[in-house]
Amino acid sequence: MRQDRRTAIASLVGLAGLTALAMGGASVLAQAKPRVIKVSARRFTYSPSVIELKRGEPVVLELTTEDVFMGFNLPDFNVRSDIVPGKTSTLAFTPGKSGTFIFLCDVFCGDGHETMSGKIVVS
Amino acid sequence: MTIDRRQFLQLAALGGGAVFASSLAGCASAGGAGMAGKDEDFYFVQLSDTHWGFQGPAVNPDARGTLPKAIAAVNALAVPPDFVMFTGDLTHTTDNPVERRKRLAEFRDIVAGLKVKTVRFMPGEHDASLDHGKAFTEFFGDTHYAFDHKGVHFVVVDNVSDPAARIGDEQLAWLADDLAKQPADARIVVFTHRPLFDLAPQWDWATRDGARAIEILMTRPNTTVFYGHIHQENHRMTGPIAHHSAKSLMFPLPAPMSQPNRTPIPWDAAQPYRGLGFREVEAEDRGAKYQINELPVVGA
Predict the structure, then answer these.
(1) What's the CA gap between B118 and B18, in Å, rounded?
(2) Contacts of A114 in chain B (CB under 8 A)
(3) ipTM over 0.95
Protein backbone atom coordinates (compact mmCIF):
# COMPACT_ATOMS: atom_id res chain seq x y z
CA MET A 1 0.00 0.00 0.00
CA ARG A 2 2.78 2.32 0.98
CA GLN A 3 4.47 1.37 -2.18
CA ASP A 4 1.32 2.18 -4.06
CA ARG A 5 1.08 5.58 -2.41
CA ARG A 6 4.66 6.34 -3.28
CA THR A 7 4.01 5.21 -6.78
CA ALA A 8 0.92 7.37 -6.95
CA ILE A 9 2.82 10.40 -5.70
CA ALA A 10 5.58 9.75 -8.14
CA SER A 11 3.02 9.47 -10.90
CA LEU A 12 1.44 12.76 -9.92
CA VAL A 13 4.80 14.48 -9.83
CA GLY A 14 5.63 12.95 -13.14
CA LEU A 15 2.34 14.07 -14.63
CA ALA A 16 2.88 17.57 -13.31
CA GLY A 17 6.32 17.53 -14.80
CA LEU A 18 5.02 16.38 -18.11
CA THR A 19 2.38 19.08 -18.04
CA ALA A 20 4.96 21.73 -17.24
CA LEU A 21 7.19 20.37 -19.95
CA ALA A 22 4.34 20.46 -22.39
CA MET A 23 3.54 24.05 -21.45
CA GLY A 24 7.17 25.00 -21.65
CA GLY A 25 7.45 23.22 -24.97
CA ALA A 26 4.52 25.17 -26.27
CA SER A 27 6.24 28.31 -25.18
CA VAL A 28 9.42 27.27 -26.97
CA LEU A 29 7.46 26.43 -30.05
CA ALA A 30 5.78 29.82 -29.90
CA GLN A 31 9.16 31.46 -29.70
CA ALA A 32 10.45 29.34 -32.58
CA LYS A 33 7.63 30.31 -34.88
CA PRO A 34 9.39 32.14 -37.69
CA ARG A 35 8.75 35.75 -38.45
CA VAL A 36 7.14 36.17 -41.84
CA ILE A 37 8.40 38.99 -44.04
CA LYS A 38 6.78 39.80 -47.35
CA VAL A 39 9.14 40.83 -50.15
CA SER A 40 7.80 42.06 -53.46
CA ALA A 41 9.95 42.16 -56.60
CA ARG A 42 9.49 44.08 -59.82
CA ARG A 43 11.95 45.01 -62.49
CA PHE A 44 14.51 46.06 -61.12
CA THR A 45 13.87 46.52 -57.41
CA TYR A 46 12.82 44.69 -54.28
CA SER A 47 10.47 46.11 -51.68
CA PRO A 48 11.70 46.29 -49.04
CA SER A 49 15.26 46.59 -50.28
CA VAL A 50 16.66 46.54 -46.75
CA ILE A 51 15.55 43.77 -44.40
CA GLU A 52 16.55 43.86 -40.74
CA LEU A 53 16.83 40.54 -38.90
CA LYS A 54 18.10 39.30 -35.59
CA ARG A 55 20.79 36.70 -35.37
CA GLY A 56 19.29 33.32 -34.55
CA GLU A 57 15.76 34.41 -35.32
CA PRO A 58 14.03 32.09 -37.78
CA VAL A 59 12.35 33.94 -40.64
CA VAL A 60 10.28 33.05 -43.65
CA LEU A 61 10.43 35.36 -46.64
CA GLU A 62 7.26 35.37 -48.72
CA LEU A 63 8.39 36.34 -52.19
CA THR A 64 6.19 37.63 -55.00
CA THR A 65 6.84 39.35 -58.30
CA GLU A 66 4.73 42.08 -59.84
CA ASP A 67 5.90 41.40 -63.38
CA VAL A 68 8.40 38.83 -64.68
CA PHE A 69 10.14 35.68 -63.46
CA MET A 70 12.79 36.67 -60.89
CA GLY A 71 15.17 35.16 -58.43
CA PHE A 72 16.07 35.91 -54.82
CA ASN A 73 19.57 34.82 -53.90
CA LEU A 74 21.29 35.36 -50.56
CA PRO A 75 24.70 33.80 -51.25
CA ASP A 76 26.17 34.39 -47.79
CA PHE A 77 23.51 32.10 -46.30
CA ASN A 78 23.44 29.75 -49.26
CA VAL A 79 19.71 30.18 -49.82
CA ARG A 80 17.82 31.16 -52.94
CA SER A 81 14.43 30.87 -54.54
CA ASP A 82 12.76 31.46 -57.87
CA ILE A 83 9.98 34.03 -57.82
CA VAL A 84 7.27 32.99 -60.24
CA PRO A 85 4.57 35.41 -61.44
CA GLY A 86 1.22 34.67 -59.82
CA LYS A 87 2.68 32.58 -57.02
CA THR A 88 4.09 33.17 -53.55
CA SER A 89 7.43 31.53 -52.94
CA THR A 90 8.67 30.96 -49.41
CA LEU A 91 12.24 30.97 -48.25
CA ALA A 92 12.94 29.91 -44.67
CA PHE A 93 16.25 30.38 -42.94
CA THR A 94 17.81 31.44 -39.67
CA PRO A 95 20.65 33.93 -39.88
CA GLY A 96 23.54 32.51 -37.93
CA LYS A 97 25.89 35.44 -38.26
CA SER A 98 25.70 39.20 -37.89
CA GLY A 99 26.51 41.76 -40.52
CA THR A 100 25.23 43.22 -43.75
CA PHE A 101 24.67 40.82 -46.62
CA ILE A 102 23.69 41.34 -50.24
CA PHE A 103 20.69 39.65 -51.80
CA LEU A 104 20.15 39.84 -55.52
CA CYS A 105 18.13 38.73 -58.48
CA ASP A 106 19.97 35.82 -60.10
CA VAL A 107 17.60 35.36 -63.03
CA PHE A 108 18.46 37.79 -65.83
CA CYS A 109 15.44 40.04 -66.22
CA GLY A 110 16.50 42.86 -68.54
CA ASP A 111 18.43 46.11 -68.75
CA GLY A 112 18.75 46.97 -65.08
CA HIS A 113 19.10 43.42 -63.81
CA GLU A 114 22.61 44.22 -62.61
CA THR A 115 21.25 46.81 -60.19
CA MET A 116 18.54 44.59 -58.74
CA SER A 117 19.77 43.87 -55.25
CA GLY A 118 19.15 44.65 -51.60
CA LYS A 119 20.62 44.18 -48.15
CA ILE A 120 19.90 42.02 -45.19
CA VAL A 121 21.14 43.53 -41.97
CA VAL A 122 21.55 41.01 -39.15
CA SER A 123 22.08 42.43 -35.66
CA MET B 1 62.48 32.51 -95.67
CA THR B 2 59.60 32.91 -93.31
CA ILE B 3 59.70 33.70 -89.62
CA ASP B 4 57.17 32.76 -87.02
CA ARG B 5 55.27 35.12 -84.78
CA ARG B 6 57.61 34.79 -81.81
CA GLN B 7 60.67 35.46 -83.93
CA PHE B 8 58.91 38.40 -85.48
CA LEU B 9 57.98 39.86 -82.10
CA GLN B 10 61.56 39.46 -80.92
CA LEU B 11 62.79 41.29 -83.98
CA ALA B 12 60.16 43.95 -83.51
CA ALA B 13 61.20 44.42 -79.90
CA LEU B 14 64.79 44.90 -81.01
CA GLY B 15 63.89 47.23 -83.84
CA GLY B 16 61.23 49.28 -82.11
CA GLY B 17 57.60 50.00 -82.73
CA ALA B 18 58.07 51.34 -86.23
CA VAL B 19 59.39 47.99 -87.38
CA PHE B 20 56.50 46.29 -85.61
CA ALA B 21 54.00 48.37 -87.49
CA SER B 22 55.64 48.32 -90.89
CA SER B 23 56.67 44.72 -91.36
CA LEU B 24 53.29 43.13 -91.91
CA ALA B 25 53.78 42.32 -95.56
CA GLY B 26 56.95 40.36 -95.13
CA CYS B 27 55.89 38.18 -92.26
CA ALA B 28 54.29 34.77 -92.60
CA SER B 29 51.59 33.88 -90.14
CA ALA B 30 51.96 30.92 -87.84
CA GLY B 31 49.81 28.95 -90.23
CA GLY B 32 46.36 28.97 -91.69
CA ALA B 33 43.22 27.24 -90.66
CA GLY B 34 42.64 23.68 -91.70
CA MET B 35 45.50 22.15 -89.73
CA ALA B 36 43.27 21.07 -86.90
CA GLY B 37 45.27 18.09 -85.72
CA LYS B 38 48.83 19.33 -86.00
CA ASP B 39 50.59 20.68 -82.92
CA GLU B 40 52.03 24.04 -83.78
CA ASP B 41 52.49 27.48 -82.24
CA PHE B 42 49.64 29.83 -82.96
CA TYR B 43 47.73 32.64 -81.37
CA PHE B 44 44.17 33.84 -81.26
CA VAL B 45 42.51 37.07 -80.19
CA GLN B 46 39.77 37.25 -77.56
CA LEU B 47 37.35 40.18 -77.64
CA SER B 48 34.53 40.40 -75.16
CA ASP B 49 31.55 42.33 -73.89
CA THR B 50 31.21 44.80 -76.74
CA HIS B 51 27.63 45.63 -75.62
CA TRP B 52 26.67 47.11 -78.98
CA GLY B 53 23.63 49.35 -78.42
CA PHE B 54 24.63 50.51 -74.95
CA GLN B 55 24.04 54.18 -74.25
CA GLY B 56 25.64 55.99 -71.33
CA PRO B 57 27.85 58.97 -72.07
CA ALA B 58 29.15 59.13 -68.51
CA VAL B 59 30.48 55.62 -68.92
CA ASN B 60 31.48 55.61 -72.57
CA PRO B 61 30.89 58.73 -74.70
CA ASP B 62 32.27 56.83 -77.70
CA ALA B 63 29.87 53.91 -77.45
CA ARG B 64 29.48 53.64 -81.22
CA GLY B 65 33.15 54.19 -81.93
CA THR B 66 34.87 51.83 -79.52
CA LEU B 67 34.10 48.57 -81.32
CA PRO B 68 35.18 49.90 -84.74
CA LYS B 69 38.41 51.10 -83.13
CA ALA B 70 39.01 47.66 -81.66
CA ILE B 71 38.39 46.05 -85.04
CA ALA B 72 40.91 48.43 -86.57
CA ALA B 73 43.38 47.57 -83.82
CA VAL B 74 43.04 43.85 -84.50
CA ASN B 75 43.46 44.44 -88.22
CA ALA B 76 46.63 46.38 -87.48
CA LEU B 77 48.29 43.56 -85.51
CA ALA B 78 51.68 42.82 -86.96
CA VAL B 79 50.90 39.15 -87.43
CA PRO B 80 47.26 38.25 -87.91
CA PRO B 81 45.82 35.79 -85.40
CA ASP B 82 44.65 32.38 -86.53
CA PHE B 83 41.17 33.26 -85.37
CA VAL B 84 39.17 35.75 -83.32
CA MET B 85 36.81 34.73 -80.54
CA PHE B 86 34.06 36.95 -79.13
CA THR B 87 33.12 35.73 -75.66
CA GLY B 88 29.62 37.12 -75.35
CA ASP B 89 27.57 40.21 -74.65
CA LEU B 90 28.05 41.18 -78.26
CA THR B 91 25.04 43.45 -77.82
CA HIS B 92 23.45 45.28 -74.93
CA THR B 93 20.14 43.79 -73.89
CA THR B 94 16.77 45.13 -74.94
CA ASP B 95 13.22 43.95 -74.32
CA ASN B 96 12.34 44.62 -77.95
CA PRO B 97 13.01 41.58 -80.19
CA VAL B 98 13.19 43.80 -83.29
CA GLU B 99 15.75 46.08 -81.69
CA ARG B 100 17.70 43.02 -80.45
CA ARG B 101 18.03 41.76 -84.02
CA LYS B 102 18.93 45.24 -85.26
CA ARG B 103 21.77 45.40 -82.77
CA LEU B 104 22.96 41.90 -83.65
CA ALA B 105 22.88 42.81 -87.34
CA GLU B 106 24.84 46.01 -86.79
CA PHE B 107 27.37 44.12 -84.69
CA ARG B 108 27.71 41.43 -87.37
CA ASP B 109 28.26 44.07 -90.06
CA ILE B 110 30.92 45.90 -88.05
CA VAL B 111 32.93 42.80 -87.19
CA ALA B 112 32.72 41.75 -90.83
CA GLY B 113 35.46 44.34 -91.20
CA LEU B 114 37.93 41.99 -89.52
CA LYS B 115 40.57 40.82 -91.93
CA VAL B 116 40.89 37.56 -90.03
CA LYS B 117 38.98 34.88 -91.89
CA THR B 118 37.92 32.78 -88.93
CA VAL B 119 35.78 34.64 -86.42
CA ARG B 120 33.78 32.74 -83.80
CA PHE B 121 31.01 33.90 -81.52
CA MET B 122 29.18 32.93 -78.39
CA PRO B 123 26.41 34.71 -76.51
CA GLY B 124 26.36 36.58 -73.24
CA GLU B 125 23.28 37.03 -71.09
CA HIS B 126 22.59 40.38 -72.76
CA ASP B 127 22.34 38.64 -76.14
CA ALA B 128 20.52 35.51 -75.15
CA SER B 129 18.86 35.40 -71.75
CA LEU B 130 15.61 37.15 -72.62
CA ASP B 131 14.80 34.86 -75.57
CA HIS B 132 16.82 31.75 -74.65
CA GLY B 133 19.32 32.40 -77.42
CA LYS B 134 16.80 32.55 -80.27
CA ALA B 135 17.97 35.76 -81.95
CA PHE B 136 21.64 34.96 -81.38
CA THR B 137 21.20 31.58 -83.05
CA GLU B 138 19.58 33.20 -86.08
CA PHE B 139 22.67 35.30 -86.64
CA PHE B 140 25.58 33.23 -85.38
CA GLY B 141 24.47 29.60 -85.10
CA ASP B 142 24.90 27.28 -82.15
CA THR B 143 25.43 28.70 -78.69
CA HIS B 144 27.67 25.79 -77.65
CA TYR B 145 30.03 23.83 -79.85
CA ALA B 146 33.55 22.44 -80.12
CA PHE B 147 36.34 22.67 -82.65
CA ASP B 148 39.97 21.68 -83.01
CA HIS B 149 42.87 23.83 -84.03
CA LYS B 150 46.51 22.82 -84.28
CA GLY B 151 46.45 20.28 -81.51
CA VAL B 152 44.16 22.16 -79.14
CA HIS B 153 40.56 21.14 -78.54
CA PHE B 154 38.32 24.16 -78.03
CA VAL B 155 34.95 23.93 -76.31
CA VAL B 156 32.40 26.73 -76.17
CA VAL B 157 30.10 26.43 -73.15
CA ASP B 158 26.84 28.38 -73.03
CA ASN B 159 25.92 29.48 -69.51
CA VAL B 160 23.63 32.35 -70.52
CA SER B 161 20.79 31.10 -72.72
CA ASP B 162 19.12 29.96 -69.52
CA PRO B 163 18.37 33.26 -67.76
CA ALA B 164 19.05 31.50 -64.45
CA ALA B 165 22.69 31.04 -65.52
CA ARG B 166 22.57 27.27 -65.75
CA ILE B 167 24.49 25.24 -68.27
CA GLY B 168 21.87 22.55 -67.88
CA ASP B 169 21.90 18.76 -67.74
CA GLU B 170 21.79 18.29 -71.50
CA GLN B 171 24.76 20.52 -72.26
CA LEU B 172 26.74 19.14 -69.33
CA ALA B 173 26.19 15.64 -70.71
CA TRP B 174 27.38 16.87 -74.10
CA LEU B 175 30.46 18.41 -72.48
CA ALA B 176 31.28 15.19 -70.64
CA ASP B 177 30.82 13.17 -73.81
CA ASP B 178 32.93 15.57 -75.85
CA LEU B 179 35.82 15.52 -73.38
CA ALA B 180 35.60 11.74 -73.00
CA LYS B 181 36.67 11.50 -76.63
CA GLN B 182 39.85 13.42 -75.87
CA PRO B 183 43.04 11.85 -74.50
CA ALA B 184 43.67 12.33 -70.79
CA ASP B 185 46.50 14.77 -71.54
CA ALA B 186 44.63 16.65 -74.25
CA ARG B 187 45.11 20.39 -74.45
CA ILE B 188 41.68 21.87 -73.86
CA VAL B 189 40.58 25.49 -74.04
CA VAL B 190 37.10 26.40 -72.86
CA PHE B 191 35.37 29.60 -73.86
CA THR B 192 32.44 30.68 -71.74
CA HIS B 193 30.78 33.93 -70.78
CA ARG B 194 30.19 33.81 -67.06
CA PRO B 195 32.82 32.51 -64.66
CA LEU B 196 32.31 28.81 -64.07
CA PHE B 197 33.37 29.20 -60.45
CA ASP B 198 31.87 31.38 -57.72
CA LEU B 199 33.92 34.51 -58.31
CA ALA B 200 31.38 36.82 -56.66
CA PRO B 201 27.89 35.34 -56.49
CA GLN B 202 26.77 38.48 -54.60
CA TRP B 203 27.31 40.28 -57.92
CA ASP B 204 25.90 37.47 -60.04
CA TRP B 205 29.43 36.59 -61.14
CA ALA B 206 28.92 32.85 -61.10
CA THR B 207 27.27 29.96 -62.94
CA ARG B 208 24.53 28.11 -61.07
CA ASP B 209 25.83 24.67 -62.05
CA GLY B 210 29.38 25.75 -62.85
CA ALA B 211 30.83 23.38 -60.24
CA ARG B 212 29.51 20.46 -62.25
CA ALA B 213 31.23 21.79 -65.36
CA ILE B 214 34.51 22.19 -63.49
CA GLU B 215 34.16 18.65 -62.18
CA ILE B 216 33.94 17.44 -65.78
CA LEU B 217 36.86 19.64 -66.86
CA MET B 218 38.98 18.19 -64.05
CA THR B 219 39.05 14.93 -65.99
CA ARG B 220 41.27 16.77 -68.47
CA PRO B 221 43.69 18.73 -66.28
CA ASN B 222 45.38 20.47 -69.22
CA THR B 223 42.37 22.74 -69.48
CA THR B 224 42.32 26.53 -69.54
CA VAL B 225 39.19 28.68 -69.44
CA PHE B 226 38.78 32.08 -71.07
CA TYR B 227 35.65 34.03 -70.23
CA GLY B 228 34.11 37.52 -70.13
CA HIS B 229 31.16 38.99 -68.20
CA ILE B 230 33.10 40.83 -65.49
CA HIS B 231 34.66 43.48 -67.77
CA GLN B 232 38.17 43.21 -66.40
CA GLU B 233 41.16 40.95 -66.22
CA ASN B 234 40.98 38.32 -63.52
CA HIS B 235 43.06 35.21 -63.15
CA ARG B 236 42.07 32.37 -60.88
CA MET B 237 42.90 28.70 -60.45
CA THR B 238 40.48 25.92 -59.54
CA GLY B 239 42.83 23.01 -58.99
CA PRO B 240 44.97 22.69 -62.11
CA ILE B 241 42.57 24.71 -64.27
CA ALA B 242 43.30 28.38 -64.96
CA HIS B 243 40.44 30.80 -65.54
CA HIS B 244 41.17 34.11 -67.31
CA SER B 245 38.54 36.81 -67.71
CA ALA B 246 38.80 39.48 -70.39
CA LYS B 247 38.30 43.22 -70.49
CA SER B 248 35.22 44.75 -72.06
CA LEU B 249 35.04 46.91 -75.16
CA MET B 250 32.33 49.16 -73.72
CA PHE B 251 32.85 49.88 -70.00
CA PRO B 252 34.99 48.50 -67.18
CA LEU B 253 33.55 47.19 -63.94
CA PRO B 254 35.08 47.41 -60.45
CA ALA B 255 37.12 44.62 -58.91
CA PRO B 256 34.97 41.87 -57.39
CA MET B 257 33.25 43.06 -54.18
CA SER B 258 35.48 46.15 -54.02
CA GLN B 259 32.48 48.44 -53.56
CA PRO B 260 28.83 48.02 -52.56
CA ASN B 261 27.47 47.74 -56.12
CA ARG B 262 28.83 46.54 -59.44
CA THR B 263 28.30 49.88 -61.17
CA PRO B 264 30.39 50.70 -64.26
CA ILE B 265 33.54 52.72 -63.75
CA PRO B 266 32.95 56.24 -65.13
CA TRP B 267 34.77 57.43 -68.23
CA ASP B 268 38.02 59.23 -67.46
CA ALA B 269 38.50 62.01 -70.00
CA ALA B 270 42.15 62.24 -69.00
CA GLN B 271 42.60 58.58 -69.87
CA PRO B 272 40.00 57.71 -72.51
CA TYR B 273 39.30 53.99 -73.05
CA ARG B 274 41.10 53.17 -69.80
CA GLY B 275 40.19 49.70 -68.63
CA LEU B 276 38.97 48.63 -72.06
CA GLY B 277 40.82 46.34 -74.40
CA PHE B 278 41.30 42.91 -75.87
CA ARG B 279 43.91 40.21 -75.66
CA GLU B 280 46.18 38.00 -77.67
CA VAL B 281 46.52 34.42 -76.47
CA GLU B 282 49.53 32.53 -77.72
CA ALA B 283 49.50 28.74 -77.61
CA GLU B 284 52.80 26.95 -77.74
CA ASP B 285 53.08 23.53 -79.32
CA ARG B 286 53.61 21.80 -76.00
CA GLY B 287 51.93 22.00 -72.63
CA ALA B 288 48.81 23.86 -71.63
CA LYS B 289 50.26 27.24 -70.75
CA TYR B 290 49.26 30.26 -72.73
CA GLN B 291 50.95 33.61 -73.06
CA ILE B 292 48.40 36.37 -72.64
CA ASN B 293 49.10 39.82 -73.99
CA GLU B 294 46.59 42.51 -73.06
CA LEU B 295 46.16 45.29 -75.61
CA PRO B 296 44.31 48.61 -75.40
CA VAL B 297 41.54 49.72 -77.75
CA VAL B 298 43.70 52.43 -79.24
CA GLY B 299 47.44 52.53 -79.56
CA ALA B 300 47.80 48.76 -79.81
Answers:
(1) 28
(2) 204, 262
(3) no
